[in-house]
Amino acid sequence: MVEELMIDRAVVDGLFPADLPEPGHWEERYPARDLPEGAKVTRIGPSPTGFIHIGGIYVGMIDRDVATDSGGVYVVRIEDTDQAREVEGALEQFDRAFEYFHISSDEDRNRGSYGPYVQSEREQIYLTYVRHLLRQGKAYLCFATKDELADITARQQASKVPTGYYGKWAIWRDADPADVAAKLAEGTPYVVRFRAPEGETRTSFVDAIRDRLEHEANRNDAVILKSSDQSPRLPTYHFAHAVDDHLMRVNLVIRGDEWISSVPLHQQLFAALEFEPITYAHIAPLMKQIPGGKRKLSKRKDPEAGVDFYIGAGYPADAVLYYLRGLANGRLAEVPLAEALATPIDLSLCGVAGPLVDLVKLEDLSADHIATLSGQQILDAVRAWAVEYDADLVPVLDNEKDLALRALAVERDGVENPRKDLRKWSDFRPAYGFFFTELFVPVDGPADERLVPLGVAPEVVTAFAADLVAQYEHLDDPQEWFDQIRALAGKHRFAPNAKEYKKNPDAYVGSIREASQLVRVAITGATRSPDLHATAQALGASEVLRRLRALTS
């Protein structure tokens, strides 16, 4: 039956460039790779129809690990066949994301001998294989209009049968070659559809993560080449990926589990093209906890789904990768960061339930990681981040490098449990900005709004601060340094402790706590800060006095 309905080879060939190569040309151009036995060639195919999801980094990280650990090759291929929906700047964002998270590829649009690695640049290759299927009757021309397709869908829905282009609904599948020729003579636009094999009802395959899966066979005649009135003539994703994976000699495709339902079609395409089938590994998607359950992490709904959320906020790449590796293989969450980053991800240990992305846990891990870094490492990382995301901070860090290092040393250097007030690089300004004159906002006299919650009368603030400025000694010993504040507090009728103040509030203007907080707010601008003596030592005597004088003006 198929042979009887096949259009003449000369007609088929006339639809394509006369110099279009045969399949053998491409098979020779892209030979089997010379790799060790068991080596995996993996790929990730980001589409520039949007910015990359953190799940793309998750899958790319796994691709990179599996390929490298097996002595194989990791490929980044830009899948831009849907050019109408392309987002400006997406390609640059892909590069930024992969570079930030150290997921370098062995082959991409800048290097490699199995390219081009951008699908829109591979038109000739796809046309060769489309023509090949048409010649064999495994594909056909379809002239169905949008209105006709909409009518088919409506009638299927009314009949309560599955929607799609198949069987009796595939109105051009068994068309008379004379009718096809007439449409071509009229210049009617057409698409090329794959002729789904008849008689298949079920199919199965072995997933590298989920073991054997069984599904209903594909029966839809999927479009494999888009409309003839478009230029360039680009294939659909399903066809392009089959051709590209074969010619790039990919033998393991790691992708999200939303693609499981496409495997039956992909199997048919590989068989029709006489390509060696490849192995698929379907990863469970990253999830988000919501009231009453969980759902997939969504770029449309969840800021933390986008990679730029992490880069812009300055989450250290190693901390994020450590967290993601723990989501992929739970055992890696139980070992130190350096060990987890060096241990390859094992596909067999990937779960089939989507792991939850918990930003609170990520920030805890990130704070722990940053606490292990030296002041110089933190300063270098903050500056590199600030160049792009906080330009005003860069000259401050450059001009006050020694002060920045002293600030970072407060409650970090030489202590058993260092401060963990940095969870990401964007935390530097709010946590340490007060150390720098250019960033610090001094109190505006004794009635400054930051002092109001302390409940100390402005005249008391002024008198206490004036005495402190007059008698201040920049002492090295923390206890001696604080004793001078305690002595002056007593002189100005601050109770020696909160208990004494509560017992007889009318006898005092406040407690030693309020007196200390006056000093803290004057020096740091807030009632919470790192150790006050260590902070004063980092700032130096002249700057401490300058800030204390602001209480008296």
Describe the model.
Helix content is 43%, strand content 10%. The protein is mainly alpha-helical and 553 residues long. The chain folds into four domains: 2-24 and 123-245, Glutamyl-tRNA Synthetase, domain 3 (Alpha-Beta Complex), CATH 3.90.800; 39-117 and 284-372, 3-Layer(aba) Sandwich (Rossmann fold), CATH 3.40.50.620; 373-435, no CATH class; 452-549, Arc Repressor Mutant, subunit A, CATH 1.10.10.350. The radius of gyration is 34 Å and the shape is elongated. The mean pLDDT is 95.
Strand content: 5-15%
Q: State the separation between the terminal residues, measured CA to CA.
A: 99 Å
CATH architecture of the largest domain: 3-Layer(aba) Sandwich
Estimate percent helicity. Answer: 40-55%
Strands, total number: 13
What is the CATH superfamily label of the largest domain?
HUPs
The domain tally reads 4
Strand order of the largest sheet: 3-4-7
Instruction: Average the pLDDT over all residues and give the rounded result.
Output: 95
Instruction: Outline the low-pLDDT stretches.
Output: none
- What's the main sheet like? 3 strands, antiparallel
